[in-house]
Amino acid sequence: MKNINLFTLIRNIFFGVLCLGFSNVALSQARPIEEGFDYRVMPVAQVTESKGKIEVLEFFWYGCPHCHDFEPELSAWIAKQGKDVVVKKVPVAFRDELLPHSQLFYALDSLGRNDLHAKVMVAMHVNKKKLLAEAEIADWVASQGIDRQAFLKAFKSFTVTSKARAANQIAQAYRIDGVPTVAVQGKYLTSPSIAGGSKVRATQAMDFLVNKVRKEKK
What is the DSSP string of 50-68? Predict the structure, then answer.
């Protein structure tokens, strides 16, 4: 009988802690979006390029597991945005040896194959490909039905390499020190890590910030 009571006690404690955890998550997602808790205001606002639109930048790195994890929620959020919202992806290479990942993104973009964006992350984080060496990148791209030589021409082009380095300069201007991070209208930053480690809370903050910018424009 004592063993049964002890088991019951442990079980009740376990489920009590579990329910408390769920309650805390639910409460955090129910409270209003707040500066300092769910988003940050940049000390110096950056100039946006999408005139007349609300510009949202997603800073990411193909090798980041958190970016891969956030991709489904982010894609679903993007699909729900109105015509007044423009979302741009900005690849970040925190070290020079990671620039091939940024070049891969812009080379695919130049070839009109942005549909492979999520597949690159799957290749790296599920299939464990590094996609850093030029030959390995070209082999993978060719396996996706893209002409190898056409891709390599784009990958090594002045335009693509310049965009890859310019993306790092943009990230530095926004003081990006971790990814994924989302910037709204050059003024506000949020991310799952900023928003208490919650992907849902981050997208809620993004909704809040987009609506905030709409009101500011009026």
Answer: STTSEEEEEEE-TT-HHHH
Rg (the chain; Cα; Å): 21
3-state class of 210 per DSSP?
helix
**In the sheet where 188-190 sits, what is the strand order?**
40-41, 188-190, 181-184, 54-60, 85-91
The structural domains of the chain, with segments of one domain joined by +, span 1-30, 35-217
In tens, the pLDDT along 175-217 reads: 999 999 999 999 999 999 999 999 999 999 999 999 999 999 8
Its CATH class, for the domain covering 35-217, is: alpha beta
pTM, entire model: 0.86
* Cα-Cα-Cα-Cα dihedral sign, residues 103, 108, 110, 111: positive
Among 216, 198, 218, 217, CA closest to 33: 198
For residues 119 and 125, what is the distance between their CA atoms, to the nearest angstrom? 10
